Structure formats: C-alpha cells, structure tokens
C-alpha cells in the first residue's frame, strides 16, 4: 500500500532518530544534514502534495455543498422562489441554452411556476432576479431610476461595439449624451430630413422588386448612381449621396434573391439593407450602397453583422474568453471591430478635414435632397408623386456641433462611439420589427381583414401619393400594426439592470446592491394577466381601443429617462416603407404556417430570414408615376 518513497522516508526518519542519541562527528553531521535534506525533499515531493490534495478535496467538498444549487460565489436568495441550479454553475447552462427562442419560453415557464418574481444564479452575473410585473418594471426604469444602472458586466462584454457610447454609459457621461441626442431627434429633423431619406430608400427597394417582378420602372437607375462622384461638398445633392462604399464587392453569402424562377426573396435581408443604407445617409450623408445591388456583399455590413452576433453570444455565455480563444473567434471579433472602427474614423477624418477647410464645426454640412420638380399638394394634404424634397444636417454634423456643460466638443473617439451606437440602435431593431410585421400580416393564422384594413388605410391616406411625415402620423392603423408586432416580437426581447443601492420593489420584494434584475419583454408582451385572454393574438385594433400608447405595460421601447430615443424615427421609417411596398406589391410567405426560428443576437432576428414570393399588386386602383 505504501509507495517506495514513503518507505524510504520512514527509513530516513528511523535512522536519524537512532543516531540522535549518540555523539556525532562532522562527517556524521554532514551525513545527518544530507539525510534531513532528503527527508524534507521527500516531504515536499510527496507528503506536502498529499496534504495539499487532502486540503483541496475537503475544500472542494465544502464548496460543492455550499454551492450545490447555485453558481460559485453567489449566495442564493432563500426568501425568493426559483429553479434549482447545477452545482457551481447554477442556472448558467439552461439560461444560455439554444435555440435562443427557448430562453424566452423557459423564462415564461419559470414565471408560471414561481410567480412574478423569482431568482436564480448565473456565472459572471451572480444573483439574477427575474421580474414580470409592469409596475415593477416601471419602478426600475422610471420611478426609482437612479437606483439602477447598466453596470460593468454590460459595458465590458459589449465594449468592442458600444465603447463609451450612449447604450453602455451610466451616470454623468450618459446624461450628456442623452441631452445632446434629445435635441437632435426632433420633429423638424424628421419632417425635413429623415422622412425624405426613408422615402428615397423605399423607392430603391421598389426598384429592386420591380427588377425581380420584371417591371422596368427605375426612377434611379443603377448606372446613374454607381458612377456618382464621392461627396465631400458642404451641400450634397441626392445623386452625390448614392456612393457605394466599396463598388467592387463579392456576391453576398446571405443571399437576398433565394429563388429567381419563383421570385423568392429574403425579406428580412432586404429590410436590413434598407435600414443600413438609410442610416448611412442619416448618420453621415453617404449610403452604404447595399440597395443599389442587393446581391453584392458590402464588407462593412458583413463585419458589423458578425460582430453583433458574436458579442451577443458573449453576453449570454460566461466562458466566452476561453471558448473564443479556443475557436479563434476572438481573432474574428478583433478583425471585425477593426473594420467597423476604421470605417467610422474614415468618415470622421473626412469631416475634420472639411471642418479645417471651412472653419465651421463639422464642416457645416447640409444635405439637399431633391426628388423631382413641379408637383402640388393634393386635397388630402398629401403631396402628389414626384414633388418631394428636403434638406438637413446629418447626425455626424449635429454631434460635431454639440457641446457639453463646459463648452467642450466630442473627441474623435466619442464621435466614433456615437456613430456606432446609433447605427446599432437604428438598424437591426427596425429591420427586425418590419420583418416580423410582414410575417404576422401574411401568416395563415392572422385574420385576412387585418391586411385588407391596412391596405385600405394606406390607399385612403396616400391616395396613390408618396408618404410624408404628416401622412405617417395620420396612418393610425399602420402604426397599430407595428406596435402590435413589437408587443409580440420586441426587437429587444430581454433587458437587464444592475442594482446600485438597496431598494424595495412595489409588492415588497427587496433587492440588494450588486444584484442583477432582469425582465423579459417577449414574455411580458404575451402575458394574459397584462394583455388579457387574447394576448397571443395579433390584433392591431387593441391599440385603437383601450391600449393607447404610451402605456407602461408596453415596454418594447423601454420607459423613463432612458426610453428609446428613436421610437418616432423607427415607426415613421416602418410606416413609410410598409406603405410604399403595399401600394405596389403582394407578398406570400413561403411557409405561412410555421413561426420562423429565432436567431442568435442581442435583438430578435429570424435565424433563416423571411423567404417570401413577391408579385405586383393586382387590385391597385391608384397608380403612382415614378
Ligand atoms: C423597432 C425599433 C426600435 C426598438 C424596439 C427600440 C428599442 C429600444 C430599447 C428597448 C431601448 C432601451 C435599451 C436599454 O437602455 O437597455 C432603446 C434605447 C435606445 N434607442 Fe431604440 N429602439 C428602436 C429603434 C431605434 C432607432 C431607429 C434609434 C435611432 C436611430 C434608436 C435609438 C435609441 C437610443 C439612442 C437608445 C438609448 C437611449 C438611452 O440609453 O438613453 N432606437 N431602444
């Protein structure tokens, strides 16, 4: 049973003890010393590790018992119900488990079992309290806003994309950004600038669909736009703006035209291209050129998509450092971050050069957007085809002009973060909302009359004309369809805050500093306690009856001081493109009976896009000249 070393050690011990009783010579002393040295070596080489091993085992057993249902270093909340977790990792795996949609369903199941508040533990996050009550969510986001923050975990995990921008900022830094941005997102800007761009970009989608459906209507031909010179002038006209950032590009990996013969396109992909191009022009006056040829890949868009998908995986997976290193994903993230940053800095440096030349902040860029001449306003207040125009400053110009309380301006780094934060905020969210709306409008379970009512409203308000800021406000049913979509498929399906100081929630549950508190927007939108027995039904009428917006039970655009800055922007954009597409085309889902699978993201994409057949609208009594 004993190893050779242990026997030798005991021999050393016994020989040293027997010789200790007699006098020793120096030679014997040396011998004794060397034997003692050997003994220590053996102790170190054998017994000590055993001692350490034993200590380690006892400690591990203690840790295993202590954290038998929770993640390591998290103390469970004995006063709150919740699912038991696995030893040392708590509920980490089940909360990160794929497919993504199942996370929302699982959370909904836990609420059914444990009630409106439950707690669990997750590695990296510690104790996480899940809440489901609109009053509690309102308390966190509005009533006691200052007791909660985004916190370090959020900031560090998502740093490559958000940097110090508005999305991850807390405290004073957030306050400044919010104040500056609030001044920019106003009615005048929507009316004269963003609405015009939405219309023009929607027209490019129509041009593409016309090409697909073999119609030859193209008000902006491909050649007229790809040959346009790159714009650096202070005043930029429409044709100047349509500059593809990378004119020679490979075909897209994620294809838009899925089947040429039966005219099947991925509508979600089209909406991504539409919101990206729109944002390029609104953000810094240059289109990414995606809609000029939707079949060509735009490297920036590819890098941006991969980056957001990879970072969202990190957010849900505490072992990401290890797995990213193992799979080499960290290199991909670094390369994509560089592509995105390089692009942002290129835009900023161009503006700085213009600023220097003109002596005006940001270069004083104002975009003149022309869409044709000589029209008139119709009886309904709607502008007739071919008469629209607008002008305005882009986001970059407006942020370069903005100053903080001390009169200081944003640095290049600050501008880069701002650009990327707004791009992220404004691109995927609206594109996904639009995709889910087209899915809901055309799936087999939805009453046919919903689409009929929507078309009727579009035809009545627009009378065959183009949508404007004013018509978008008049289209109440269209807006209701969009909000109803976001209730069932919120673009931000889950949110989280860090508790900054101990607090008591409505209903009496205490939360403590350092805890995380989360609410599932996806689940709240389907909760029958909140929305009534028909909660799961797509029924836009509810927004025109009792459920008026804003309502504290609708949290898809958030609430309180950090409420979404772009909500009006988003629904005007959505109403514009929806109206222009439904004026001209009919859509048929390739799979009308099944819900699309959810993709991996911080937002709520469809994993496999939205394949639809597109054809020219047959019952159109209004014909719009183009
Ligand atoms: C369907 C479309 C959209 C939805 C559902 C949506 C939803 C949200 C949500 C839930 C938040 C809160 C995030 C948080 O603090 O945790 C938010 C914040 C924000 N959104 Fe949106 N958003 C949409 C479109 C847009 C657009 C188009 C823009 C701008 C162009 C925008 C700009 C912002 C900004 C700047 C914030 C940060 C506000 C702050 O922290 O003070 N959003 N949005």
UniProtKB/TrEMBL annotation:
Transmembrane segments: 45-65
This protein's UniProt keywords: Heme, Iron, Membrane, Metal-binding, Monooxygenase, Oxidoreductase, Transmembrane, Transmembrane helix
Source organism, top-level taxon: Eukaryota
Keyword Oxidoreductase (UniProt): yes
SUPFAM superfamilies, sorted: Cytochrome P450
Keyword Ribonucleoprotein: no
PROSITE patterns given in the database record: CYTOCHROME_P450
InterPro entries: Cyt_P450, Cyt_P450_CS, Cyt_P450_E_grp-I, Cyt_P450_sf
Family: Belongs to the cytochrome P450 family.
UniProt protein name: Cytochrome P450
């Amino acid at each position: 049973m004993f190893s050779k070393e242990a026997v030798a050690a005991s021999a050393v011990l016994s020989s040293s003890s027997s010789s200790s009783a007699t006098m020793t010579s120096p030679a014997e002393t040396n011998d004794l010393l060397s034997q003692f040295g050997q003994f220590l070596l053996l102790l170190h080489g054998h017994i000590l590790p055993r001692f350490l091993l034993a200590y380690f085992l006892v400690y591990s057993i203690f840790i295993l018992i202590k954290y038998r249902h929770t993640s390591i270093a998290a103390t469970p909340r004995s006063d709150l119900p919740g699912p038991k977790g696995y030893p040392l990792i708590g509920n980490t795996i089940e909360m990160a488990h794929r497919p993504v949609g199942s996370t929302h369903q699982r959370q909904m199941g836990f609420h059914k079992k444990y009630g409106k508040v439950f707690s669990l533990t997750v590695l990296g996050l510690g104790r996480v309290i899940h809440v489901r009550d609109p009053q509690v969510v309102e308390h966190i986001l509005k009533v006691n806003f200052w007791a909660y923050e985004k916190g370090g975990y959020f900031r560090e995990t998502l740093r490559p994309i958000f940097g110090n921008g508005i999305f991850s900022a807390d405290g004073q830094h957030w306050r400044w950004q919010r104040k500056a941005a609030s001044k920019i997102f106003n009615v005048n800007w929507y009316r004269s600038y963003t609405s015009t761009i939405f219309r023009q970009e929607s027209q490019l989608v129509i041009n593409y669909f016309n090409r697909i459906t073999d119609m030859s209507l193209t008000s902006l031909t491909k050649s007229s736009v790809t040959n346009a010179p790159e714009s650096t002038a202070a005043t930029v006209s429409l044709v100047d703006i349509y500059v593809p950032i990378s004119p020679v590009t490979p075909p897209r990996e994620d294809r838009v035209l899925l089947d040429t013969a039966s005219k099947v396109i991925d509508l979600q992909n089209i909406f991504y291209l539409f919101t990206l191009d729109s944002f390029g022009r609104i953000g810094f006056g240059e289109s990414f050129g995606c809609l000029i040829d939707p079949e060509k890949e735009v490297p920036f868009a590819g890098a941006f998509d991969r980056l957001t998908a990879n970072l969202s995986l990190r957010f849900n997976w505490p072992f990401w450092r290890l797995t990213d290193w193992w799979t080499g994903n960290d290199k991909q993230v670094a390369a994509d971050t560089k592509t995105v940053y390089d692009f942002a800095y290129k835009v900023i440096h161009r503006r700085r050069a213009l600023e220097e030349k003109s002596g005006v902040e940001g270069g004083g860029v104002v975009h003149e957007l022309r869409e044709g001449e000589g029209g008139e306003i119709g009886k309904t207040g709607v502008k007739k085809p071919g008469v629209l125009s607008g002008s305005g400053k882009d986001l970059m110009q407006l942020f370069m002009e903005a100053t903080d309380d001390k009169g200081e301006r944003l640095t290049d780094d600050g501008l880069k973060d701002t650009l990327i934060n707004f791009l992220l905020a404004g691109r995927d969210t609206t594109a996904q909302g639009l995709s889910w709306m087209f899915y809901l409008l055309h799936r087999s379970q939805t009453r046919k009359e919903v689409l009929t009512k929507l078309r009727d409203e579009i035809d009545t308000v627009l009378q065959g004309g183009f949508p404007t800021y004013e018509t978008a406000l008049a289209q109440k049913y269209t807006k209701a369809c969009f909000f109803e979509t976001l209730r069932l498929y919120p673009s931000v399906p889950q949110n989280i805050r860090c508790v900054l100081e101990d607090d008591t929630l409505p209903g009496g549950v205490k939360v403590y500093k350092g805890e995380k508190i989360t609410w599932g927007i996806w689940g709240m939108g389907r909760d029958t306690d909140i929305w009534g027995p028909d909660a799961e039904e797509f029924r836009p009428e509810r927004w025109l009856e009792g459920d008026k917006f804003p309502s504290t039970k609708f949290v898809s655009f958030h609430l309180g001081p950090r409420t979404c800055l772009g909500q009006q922007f988003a629904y005007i954009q959505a109403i514009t493109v929806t109206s222009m597409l439904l004026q001209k085309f009919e859509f048929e889902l390739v799979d009308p009976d099944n819900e699309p699978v959810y993709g991996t993201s911080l937002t709520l994409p469809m994993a496999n896009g939205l394949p639809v057949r597109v054809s020219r609208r047959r019952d159109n009594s209004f014909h719009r000249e183009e």
